[in-house]
């Protein structure tokens, strides 16, 4: 457990070691109950690796403090979290919130008057966020908090600015679980999280070199200068996109929003997982957007295109504020991908297919992934472990005008370091064709395949379309893969045989 001061402010103090096990279920997005830290240990001669709050970070709106403050503050004799819950005090914070998540806005408002503790729990912003997204869809104007947004949506004549009571601060309320949600929303990225840049960078290479040095080896690369002729690189900013798109709505998490409303939200929000605009139909909605960029020459062989309108979703416009992004995942359908930054910058962390990132727990069938609730939480609690790993992650900051190649099967995390606009596309080339076919015919393919209505028949449709256009090519790819695998095995056993023979001769 940590005290607020020791956790937040950089100073010449001792190093504090922390240990957490918070995780996210890909289905319900819940964080398992665990304190921010289970150890409070100081070692002589070591400086504290502190965290810095963002310059505009407010204090916790309800006065919640980390549990460490309760034990370190001699004036604190009671944790109002427990006294206010009564017999429910034995429940974890997560379970309490899961129960409250079954209630509507009216009942949450009534429950907030029961006690100080229920006041804090009932005003937990994610509860109100869920209510807004479930009941108002994308038809809302963000009002500075999700609770205010909910009230304004259902009671438009009610002036939410008159609800000063909603910012009451509760004394002596201690909870690592609730405090960490606020903390992750307000922490700056530490410089040491951004300094590692070990990706290979290339400018102006040929397609042949890209294929032989990166795509065939399934190796990431950052490509520079690929977007120099994109109209989007010069045009795409807030004003241009709002004017061009007007009242059209784009996919933002589980809802659809107008760009103007989304930017109003992203300017005000301060939460650990900001809503991310991630729309797969942007070019159909606004054809001009699709005409203002072009696929870099390295990625133009896209075999899913043989399916025409039946192909899975493959291209997205991505817009988000600083702190938004995608937690660890592998791209769908065993495809490879490229991601081009048009405005802003993104931090990337990538692990090869055979290395599961720390803090990430995929299910055996790959259908679900448990990982930290927020990206900042992963950096806080797990990034440091990678320093001692033999297979360190590939990392970089991708800036405007740069493109990153993400090979199939690679785990990757992305966080926007500032408001960013990007284009990404997933594709299938001959280099990963067999991987895709293998993925599409797995026993549980109907659960794993994404981006298409017909998950069951995608394998047959794709294979038939490919064979019709390139007869005999699949057999050639299979033989090539078998030959490569055989050479790899022979190389290993030859080295073992040679070493044994040498030892045999030496003994005589």
CATH architecture classification name of the largest domain: Sandwich
Distance between the termini: 64 Å
Structural category = alpha+beta
CATH topology of the largest domain: Jelly Rolls
The order of strands across the largest sheet is: 4-5-16-11-18-9-8
SSE diagram, text form:
Layout lengths: L3 H5 L5 E3 L7 E2 L16 E6 L19 H6 L7 H6 L7 H8 L4 H7 L4 H7 L2 H11 L10 H9 L21 H11 L4 H4 L6 E3 L3 H9 L5 E4 L6 H5 L2 H8 L3 E4 L2 E4 H10 L8 E3 L2 H4 L1 H5 L23 E6 L4 E5 L6 E8 L1 E7 L9 E2 L6 E3 L3 H7 L12 E6 L2 E5 L4 E6 L3 E8 L5 H8 L4 H4 L9 H12 L3 H35 L1
Parallel strand pairs: 4-5
Antiparallel strand pairs: 1-3, 2-14, 5-16, 6-7, 8-9, 9-18, 10-17, 11-16, 11-18, 12-15, 12-17, 13-14
Helix pairs in contact: 7-8
What would you note in describing this structure?
The chain is an alpha+beta fold. The protein folds into 2 domains: 64-186, no CATH class; 191-362 and 383-469, Jelly Rolls (Sandwich), CATH 2.60.120.650. 36% of the residues lie in helices and 17% in strands. The chain is built from 21 helices and 18 strands. It has helices at residues 4-8, 67-72, 80-85, 93-100, 105-111, 116-122, 125-135, 146-154, 176-186, 191-194, 207-215, 231-235, 238-245, 259-268, 282-285, 287-291, 375-381, 433-440, 445-448, 458-469, 473-507, and strands at 14-16, 24-25, 42-47, 201-203, 221-224, 249-252, 255-258, 277-279, 315-320, 325-329, 336-343, 345-351, 361-362, 369-371, 394-399, 402-406, 411-416, 420-427. The protein has a 7-stranded mixed beta sheet with strand order 4-5-16-11-18-9-8. Strands 10-17-12-15 form a 4-stranded antiparallel beta sheet, with no helix packed on it. Strand 13 and strand 14 form a beta hairpin. The longest helix has 35 residues, at 473-507. The radius of gyration is 26 Å and the shape is globular. It starts with a helix and ends with a helix. The relative contact order is 0.11. Residues 3-48 and 495-508 have low confidence and may be disordered.
């Amino acid at each position: 457990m940590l005290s607020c001061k020791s956790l937040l402010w950089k100073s010449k103090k001792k190093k504090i070691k922390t240990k957490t096990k918070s995780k996210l279920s890909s289905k319900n997005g819940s964080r398992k109950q665990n304190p921010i830290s289970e150890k409070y240990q100081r070692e002589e001669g070591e400086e504290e690796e502190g965290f810095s709050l963002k310059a505009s970070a407010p204090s916790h709106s309800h006065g919640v403090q980390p549990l460490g403050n309760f034990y370190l503050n001699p004036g604190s004799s009671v944790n109002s979290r427990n006294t206010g819950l009564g017999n429910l005090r034995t429940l974890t914070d997560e379970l309490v919130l899961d129960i409250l998540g079954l209630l509507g806005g009216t009942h949450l408002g009534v429950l907030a008057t029961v006690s100080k503790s229920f006041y804090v729990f009932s005003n937990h912003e994610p509860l109100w966020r869920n209510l807004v997204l479930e009941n108002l869809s994308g038809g809302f104007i963000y009002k500075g908090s999700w609770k205010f947004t909910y009230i304004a949506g259902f009671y438009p004549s009610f002036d939410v600015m008159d609800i000063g009571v909603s910012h009451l601060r509760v004394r002596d309320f201690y909870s690592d679980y609730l405090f960490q949600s606020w903390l992750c929303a307000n922490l700056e990225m530490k410089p040491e999280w951004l300094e590692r840049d070990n990706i290979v960078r290339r400018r102006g290479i040929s397609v042949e070199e890209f294929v032989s040095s990166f795509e065939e080896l399934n190796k990431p690369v950052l490509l520079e200068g690929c977007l120099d002729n994109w109209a989007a690189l010069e045009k795409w900013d807030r004003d241009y996109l709002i004017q061009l798109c007007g009242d059209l709505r784009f996919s933002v998490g589980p809802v659809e929003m107008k760009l103007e409303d989304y930017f109003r939200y992203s300017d005000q929000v301060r939460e650990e997982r900001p809503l991310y605009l991630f729309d797969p139909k942007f070019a159909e909605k606004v054809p001009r957007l699709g005409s203002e960029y072009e696929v870099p020459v390295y990625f133009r062989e896209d075999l899913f295109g043989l399916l025409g309108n039946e192909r899975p979703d493959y291209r997205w416009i991505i817009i988000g504020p600083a702190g938004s992004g995608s937690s660890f995942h592998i791209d769908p359908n065993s495809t490879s991908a490229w991601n081009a930054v048009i405005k802003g910058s993104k931090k990337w962390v990538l692990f090869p297919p055979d290395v599961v990132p720390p803090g990430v727990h995929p299910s055996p069938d790959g259908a679900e992934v448990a990982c930290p609730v927020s990206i900042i939480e992963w950096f806080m609690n797990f990034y440091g472990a990678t320093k001692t790993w033999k297979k360190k992650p590939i990392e970089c900051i991708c800036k405007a005008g740069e493109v990153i190649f993400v090979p199939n099967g690679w785990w990757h995390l992305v966080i926007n370091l500032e408001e960013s606009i990007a284009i990404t596309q997933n594709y299938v080339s001959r280099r990963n064709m067999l991987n895709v076919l293998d993925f599409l015919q797995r026993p549980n393919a109907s659960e794993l395949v994404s981006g298409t209505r017909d998950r069951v028949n995608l394998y047959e449709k794709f294979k038939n379309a490919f064979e019709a256009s390139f007869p005999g090519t699949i057999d050639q790819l299979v033989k090539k893969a078998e030959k490569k695998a055989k050479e790899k095995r022979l190389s290993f056993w030859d080295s073992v045989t040679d070493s044994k023979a040498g030892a045999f001769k030496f003994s005589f």
